[in-house]
Amino acid sequence: MSSVRSPLIRRAAALASGFALAFGAALAVPTAAHASPDYGPAAWVPASTSNYTDASRETDYNINYVVIHTIQGSYTSAINWFQNPSAQVSAHYVVSKTGAVTQMVRESDIAWHAGNWTYNTQSIGIEHEGYVEQDGWYTEEMYQASAAIVRSVTSKYGIPRDRAHIIGHNEVPGATHTDPGSKWNWTYFMQLVNGTTPPSWSQTVDNTTAGRFTASASWGTSTYSTQRYGADYRYADPVAASDPAWYKFNIPATASYKVEVWYPALPGYNNSTPYVIATTGGNQSVAVNQQATGGSWRTLGTFTLAAGDYNAVGVSRWTSGTGYVIADAVRLTRV
Ligand SMILES: [Zn+2]
User: Fold this and answer.
1) Domains of the chain from N-terminus onward
2) Which residues of 138-164 are buried (b: 16+ CB within 10 A; e: fewer)?
């Protein structure tokens, strides 16, 4: 491999920069992409054999790194360019803004993406649609799709899932490139890679949240307990009628959501306050003892909620319990 080392480095370094500009004669993206040979979710569109080095990794080279790139162009432009024999660059995977994935070089072969022969031989290269300097290209769908590739290859080749081994092109020794740049959220990406991502969606509605809380005039307002969430909270006597206080949420997708409630606790508050959750299977009621465990988020359970902007959680006054029913804050989190 030493005989091709220098030319490869020079070509990769010279041509990887701004290949969108160099991309002139468009090659059509094959309409009938085959299944990826190494990674199930990907389509397979092989790069020109002029654009990578045949190898038998990990027999001849260990795979120790994943290198994250930005195309400086569209998904299609990268797929076209890597098929062009004059490109002299390639990557194993290309990921689109919408989360589509195309494999173009076998993982066992050496793609030319890092501008550093040693790193090329030891890495998997992933190109991402978009431009380093522009907002809006690194989408949730892209992060999810890319992290799934990284989970696959790190598992296959025993690559540690840390930032010493999952690196940006800018972190390759000698790199003159800046991709993926400051808009790439490494913290979030590594959480996805490691399966420690925080839940993707959460919304809190307090009784003071504009446009998202409704209650009849029978509900009073209090600042009495310092365990309250926000400025104040609402309270009402129990009655044999629902007259609920409602919390309206803008729920992004029909999915499972954790429902948590916050209320101040006092001995004079209700020992069986009915929280009503509008699930896809109808309203469900969960009784909460508001005489204890106040001043923190308390989980009512996980429920399937439909997408839409509607009153998803309520506090009913209809209870056989004694004491004021309290409506303070509610939080939904997608799980
Ligand atoms: Zn790059």
Assistant:
1) 2-193 (3.40.80.10), 202-334 (2.60.120.260)
2) bbeebbebbbbbbebbbeebebebeee
